[in-house]
Amino acid sequence: KQEVTQIPAALSVPEGENLVLNCSFTDSAIYNLQWFRQDPGKGLTSLLLIQSSQREQTSGRLNASLDKSSGRSTLYIAASQPGDSATYLCAVLMDSSYKLIFGSGTRLLVRP
Amino acid sequence: GAVVSQHPSRVICKSGTSVKIECRSLDFQATTMFWYRQFPKQSLMLMATSNEGSKATYEQGVEKDKFLINHASLTLSTLTVTSAHPEDSSFYICSASGTSYGYTFGSGTRLTVV
Q: For A103, which of B43, B102, B103 is closest by C-beta distance?
């Protein structure tokens, strides 16, 4: 059974810092991995999607990497801003069932 | 990009009544839609997978008679919480697949049963 873990569960940093969020998964038979942002009481916004054959994806200040063999992904946020404060969720899409399995999320607070 | 509209965003209902939540793909056809439930400060838990024109597939532990799912067209899926009780209060989110954007999520529905 696939299990997705995110560390840390919560993170508070001063504005301007670069930070890394971690995601690990136990079953490497994934189709892709997606990072989402969720603001309180809102739905999910897709940030980056990495196919299983890819190593990384970049969008603006965000960079996500994927090491499928070791079951790890990282989301790097450069020059963090207070507007980046949100919960970040990673999710893996399983090859066999095409179901998205979510991690528990990292709650990020960027202090002005 | 792909957009999924979910309605209503908030609903309060009395215990014992039923509530219907709609999920629409606005600019693409979604052959498959998914319904999730999220408790406070927890992640999303998949409830069921909805395929257009066929019966939904429910995850283990989810009561199909409690949570009725209908996917009558390629752009609309509905979740009906029947005979709602306070323990059904939660945040419900739908998502749809059908584009290269991966899975697109609705904005969620906050259900409060009083």
A: B43
Cβ burial B57-85 (10 Å sphere, 16+ → b, else e): bbeeebeeeebbbebeebbbbbbebeebe
Express each pLDDT in A77-94 by its tens digit. 999 999 999 999 999 988
DSSP per-residue string spanning B42-107: S-EEEEEEEETTS--EEPTT--TTTEEEEEEETTEEEEEE-S--GGG-EEEEEEEEEETTEEEE--
Q: Name the interface residues of B facing A (CB cutoff 8 Å).
A: 6, 32, 34, 41-46, 49, 91, 93, 95, 97, 101-108, 110
